[in-house]
Amino acid sequence: MATTELTSDTFATATQGDGIVLVDFWAAWCGPCRSFAPVFEAASEKHSDIVFAKVDTEAEPEVSSAHRITSIPTLMVIRDGVLVFKQPGALPAPQLELLITKARELDMDDVRRQIAASKTAA
Question: Any idea where the Thioredoxin domain is (predicted)?
Answer without folding.
Answer: 1-105
